[in-house]
Protein: Iron complex outermembrane receptor protein
Amino acid sequence: MTVAFFLRHACLAAAFPLGSALAQAARSEPSEPKEPAPTQLQRVEVQAAQRSDNDLRRQSTAAKIVFSREELTRYGDTNMSDVLKRLPGVNMQGGAPRMRGLGAGFTLILINGEPAPPGFSLDNLSPSQIERIEVSRGPTAENSAQAVAGTINIILKEAPKNRQREWRGGFNTAQGRVTPWINFTYGDKSGDLSYSLPVSAYQSRSLNETSVQTQSLDAQGGRLVQAARYTDDGEGRGFNASPRLAWRLGDNHNLSWQTFVNRHDWTSVGSNVVEVQQGQGPVSRDERYRSWGRWQMLRSNLHWTRNLADSQSLELRLGGQGWSRDAGSQLQGRGAGGQPVLDQHNRSYSEEQGLTASAKYKRPLWEAHALAIGAEVEYRQRNDSRSQLDNGVEQLPGFEAPFKSNISRLAAYVQDEWDINAQWSGYAGLRAETISTASKEPGGEQRNRSQVVTPLLHLAYKPGKGRDVLRASLTRSYRAPNLNQLLGRPSVNSNLYPTSGSNIESSPDRTGNPNLRPELALGLDLAFEKYLQAGGLLSISAFHRRIDGLIRSATTLETVSWAAVPRWVARPTNLTGASTSGVEMEAKGRAGELFPSAFEAGLPLDLRASLSFYRSQVAGIPGPDNRLESQQPYAVNLGFDYRATALPISFGGSMAYTPAYAVQQSIEQRNTQGLSRKFDAYAQWRFSPTMSLRLSARDLLPLEDSSSSSYLDANGNEQGSQTERRLVRSVGLQLEIKL
Structure:
């Protein structure tokens, strides 16, 4: 079954409930008068006041931070990456969010409580389709325990309780390139049915300039220095839609349906000028390339709930998803004299379909306990194919055939939430999860199976009148190896080192390891949160993680099937272990409440700040920089928002800063990352309660994004590369209308 087939039939299935919603809305219109019916009692719905983000945070036993739509849309962002980089305790690197300073794979990304599919980019998700974001610092039994650093749960827009018509449109500009975007949300309620249809469409354009200098050894053992200048001119376009229906089937019976559709197309053209500055190496050349691709995804879920007698409840979920990625590129290189030296063609295609099902039963237990028991099952089927031709010669003969993989996941859990008294609350959970993968490769069938049992404990204490909270958590979490880390398909840098010869340690081939084990982490978290009278918050938290079986890449010289000579190959492997600790501080609130001696109490100025310190050590690797990969020593986030009283104007700014740092990746390899400094600002003019205009600016203090990697071989010779990428400012204008 192809993704196109899945998308077509899922969209047809989506049309039926949407058509039913519109038909029911039409039937609710007044018709010709009839005889008066006997008087009947009308149902009256009482809606409780919506709880604030701080209320939701304070009432949760497990540490959780909630960010509402107001917080997410303040800067007029058009993608989720820009939103997440401003959240306390969250950093962005390489387009992926990270918590606790750990690599992206340690942070679990959920969409409506389900893991985001592989290859999904948050840059393609519009904040206008988000209801809220929940950031959890520790795992719970009802969600996957693959959250060593924490969990970011992105909740899509829910069906409204009242009529909703909202339109947002605007454009962004950077380097003289204008890109438009538009969002529209339609929602209403008719009797026991409520529905919403958020739709977004966007265009993106970028011009990236990167310079790379590499140092290695030439064939004679002398020093070889090469400099490359990359220029990439890219354009993308896409759309998102997340229709949702919610039926009230009875006083204790509800059914909801939500679908998320995402498609993104991109093209780019660019150049790569390579110059040999020292040594006897490949000839200097001038390369021109173009690339293209398409990503598309559809996910659809049904959620059925039934409230039973004695405060019991039953939930059932059924979902399906499919995604595909089709990409290709063509590169032509010419030598210093203009003669052709390289004609390269790449093509790759991946697709995946999957089904999920879950059940959850809740009931009170004794006087102050809430027991929940649940089970989950998931099955995914994936196909991958890839081809790389250099001057008409396949670089990986035998590996261009499709790889077929099956992934299955089974999980069961039990949890108990205990309101001990007015001040104490506790949570205890136990989750067992099994992940099995099977792949058919040219070398035969590869299988991997991991089973992890994770006990979880959370405790919250509210001293005094219960406004402040002390928290403690003891958890076990893990990170399972992803499919790419398990597959044995190699990836080679044939531009510099084709498979007809050998390569060097600093530019190895890469492949997977089917014998990888999950990384297991034992975690301790402590936190204190002080909630101020006017809505402000002060918090400090500390954490420690002990990780066993840490996965790191190891480079060795091997005899391989894709080359006639031995080549250096990097493959992931389990190390002994590692440990990491940190302290995170956060403050937010009105300026007059946080600094009463410096600001008036009624000043409409909101301040927020977060400061985090991290430290880690990897066993078996010499210090002092034997930290976990991509973990910065500290991070700072600052921001303010001001709402004028004489004019309908509000404005604000936000800054995120991380210092430069080095990571001793292995005994031989060392990586560095330059400092990052990002400053964004916005100004909003409200013409009326239903119309506003917002001006936003991003990366007002751009820096060169720099990184380097060095490798020391057995003879003491240093090889490596240094990369610098220029960042640019961007400005956006947004008009919002609520109809």
Observations:
- The longest strand covers residues 253-278.
- Residues 1-46 have pLDDT under 50 and may be disordered.
